[in-house]
Amino acid sequence: MTPDQQPPLKDELIAWAQTLASAAVYATLIVTFVGQIARVEGLSMAPTLADQDRLVVNKLIYLLHAPQRGDIVMLYYPEDPDKTFVKRVIGDPGDVIRIVDGQVFVNDVALLDSFVLPEFRSHDDFGPFTVPPAHYFVMGDHRNNSSDSRQWGPVPKKYILGRIQLRWWPLPHVNLF
Predict the structure, then answer these.
(1) What is the pLDDT of residues 115-126, one digit of tens each?
(2) Is 87 a catalytic residue?
């Protein structure tokens, strides 16, 4: 191509600007509706997740179906929606939650929670509490070191951003959930 056949610099700049704008729009749509990267801050989900673990949050899944008991989710903190937390769904709308000496019961059935280490188990009593419609009861896996629905109540479904799909960092601990 000879110099007189090359597109003018103005056309090149416009093409680059259009490409960058398209990439920004696509990235925004993906982060808004499909998924995002998140980082764990704190120990409330230990031993399942550790402080500073890096996660992939699947935001699309709850557009297709409701959160399920046992899902690990990222949510807006109900008392300050500028903050996000990672917790485990314990109770669905309509469930009755009761805790006796740290043992969680959902609809009078003991929750199978072998993921909670004995030294992380609380000995608190709570409830009975009926989860209202369109809300979820969430708890951290480190039961004696977690701010969760026991303190600040159930989480509205609209505050649940997505399900934790993957821990991708640190590399030795990569895990699909």
Answers:
(1) 899 999 999 999
(2) yes
